[in-house]
């Protein structure tokens, strides 16, 4: 048996877990959870994850864990052949953790607000304040990347996998300006060229398509 991932392909956090699993060469039994059908509200799903969120991972021994960052760290700790994606070195791991918390609080939080307004409320525009938060996040990441190829140092880590899923989705509706954020622009290109990221490209296209259609942006 292989671990089961309850997910939605268009979700950036789910994509981050899929990218991590691909990098590890780990096969997952993927089960789509459709919120518009209230599948996350079933008693069975709430028993697995009382918060009713995605992604949720159930390992082959029945152990259940949710939150993409927690899942990614768990998968690497259990299945990776080495610690390059999430080093044991205290300071290296601290930097990765900082980037993961940054992704959650400064980027995904605001992209989630934008998506909810468009998909649930039917807004045809992006709230200017939320847009400014995303642009500010581009600026922070650009600083993080100064003199580096990757978000948390000299090699690919879980920080890149988590950040790229949310930033690539943001870039679909709030394009990164190369002249203003050249480091982010180049980093996105590097990440999207990775085999593990290419494998989740369909989910990115689904996410940006859903938003652009409702914003009536050019596809």
> Total helix count?
9
Task: Specify the helix fraction band.
Answer: 55-70%
N-C termini distance:
40 Å
Strand arrangement, major sheet: 2-1-3-4
InterPro entries: Glutathione-S-Trfase_C-like, Glutathione-S-Trfase_C_sf, Glutathione_S-Trfase, Glutathione_S-Trfase_N, GST_C, Thioredoxin-like_sf
GO biological process, one term: glutathione metabolic process
Domain GST N-terminal: 1-83
Subunit structure: Homodimer.
Describe the structure.
The model has no long low-confidence stretch (mean pLDDT 96). It is built from 9 helices and 4 strands. A 4-stranded mixed beta sheet has the order 2-1-3-4, covered by helices on one side. With 219 residues, it is α+β, with helices and mostly antiparallel strands.
């Amino acid at each position: 048996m292989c671990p089961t991932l309850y997910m939605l392909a268009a979700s950036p956090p789910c994509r981050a877990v899929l990218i991590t699993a691909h990098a590890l060469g780990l096969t997952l039994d993927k089960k789509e959870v459709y919120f518009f059908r209230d599948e996350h509200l079933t008693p069975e799903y709430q028993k697995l994850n009382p918060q009713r969120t995605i992604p949720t991972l159930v390992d082959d021994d029945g152990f259940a864990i949710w939150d993409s960052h927690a899942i990614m760290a768990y998968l690497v700790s259990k299945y990776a052949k080495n610690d390059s994606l999430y080093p044991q070195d205290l300071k290296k791991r601290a930097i990765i953790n900082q980037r993961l918390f940054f992704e959650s609080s400064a980027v995904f939080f605001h992209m989630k607000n934008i998506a909810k307004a468009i998909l649930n409320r039917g807004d045809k525009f992006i709230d200017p304040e939320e847009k400014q938060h995303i642009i500010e996040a581009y600026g922070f990441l650009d600083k993080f990347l100064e003199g580096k190829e990757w978000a948390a140092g000299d090699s690919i880590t879980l920080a890149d996998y988590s950040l790229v899923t949310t930033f690539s989705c943001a870039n679909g509706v709030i394009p990164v300006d190369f002249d203003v954020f050249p480091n982010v622009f180049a980093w996105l290109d590097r990440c999207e060229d990775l085999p593990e990221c290419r494998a989740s490209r369909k989910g990115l296209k689904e996410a940006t398509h859903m938003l652009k259609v409702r914003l009536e942006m050019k596809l």
